[in-house]
TrEMBL record:
Protein name listed in UniProt: dipeptidase E
Organism: Zootermopsis nevadensis (Dampwood termite)
Annotated EC: 3.4.13.21
Reaction catalysed by this enzyme: Dipeptidase E catalyzes the hydrolysis of dipeptides Asp-|-Xaa. It does not act on peptides with N-terminal Glu, Asn or Gln, nor does it cleave isoaspartyl peptides
Domain of life of the source: Eukaryota
């Protein structure tokens, strides 16, 4: 297999206002998993401190949908757990903490190989979406720990800013999300950034990307004006950016 067989579902958030955990994306997640005949999910809880509590929360949802959940933190050999995984769900929390743990447990290359070479489905939410990209340089999170590198899994060739917020009238004079992304694009050679608003997700299958959810996304490319794309749009051009 190769990148033409990659199977990803990348959520901006696991919770949106007025909805319970993952409920806003329930149909998309279930359609995704059923398409690939998934019955078992390997959960990666490293983005939050209390792995057990986080696992219980995730398990209660996926078990209602008929899936068996195993958390990687309970495995004696996390690398072997990755190699045997039927699908991955990488949850949200702090992106720096998540990426550091992936490095600490030597999981970067095994996960990348499973997804890009063996076609193992990958679901990411928030921080789990951030680490699917080339780097975590466009996360919103505070650097509460220090990973050895900002280089992430590189399952796709562009960056994402989950929970993207548009500017609104305020007396606060700090940078907007758009301004921060523009600052990032002053660095030579960095990729486009998808501003993934709440209630948005990217369905990536091989060389095709479809925007799912109810919101538009804002795409930033170096040297170009930002572009808005509505739900249902084909965003496959992003896979040819590098």
């Amino acid at each position: 297999m190769g990148t033409k067989e990659r199977r990803l579902l990348l959520l901006s958030s696991s919770v949106v206002h007025g909805s319970e955990y993952l409920q806003h994306a329930a149909d998309d997640i279930n359609n995704f998993l059923k398409k690939y005949h998934v019955t078992r999910i390997l959960f990666v809880p490293y983005a939050l401190h209390d792995y057990d509590e986080y696992t219980n929360k995730v398990t209660s949802v996926f078990e209602k949908w008929g899936y068996k959940v195993n958390s990687i933190h309970t495995s004696k050999d996390p690398v072997q757990a990755v190699k045997q995984a039927e699908t991955f769900y990488v949850g949200g929390g702090n992106t720096f903490q998540l990426l550091k743990a992936l490095y600490d447990w030597n999981l970067i290359d095994p996960i990348r190989k499973s997804v890009l070479e063996e076609g193992v489905p990958y679901i990411g939410s928030s921080a789990g979406t951030n680490v699917a990209t080339p780097s975590i340089c466009t996360t919103n999170d505070m650097p509460i720990v220090y990973p050895p590198s900002f280089t992430a899994l590189g399952l796709i060739p562009f960056n994402i800013n989950p929970h993207y917020l548009d500017a609104s009238p305020t007396t606060h004079m700090g940078e907007t999300r758009e301004q921060r992304i523009e600052q990032y694009h002053k660095i030579p050679g960095v990729p486009p950034v998808v501003g993934l608003r709440e209630d948005c997700l990217l369905h990536i299958e091989g060389d095709k990307i479809t925007l799912k959810g109810k919101s538009c996304v804002r795409i930033f490319s170096p040297g170009k004006n930002p572009e808005e794309h509505e739900a249902g749009s084909n965003l496959s051009f992003l896979l040819k950016t590098i």
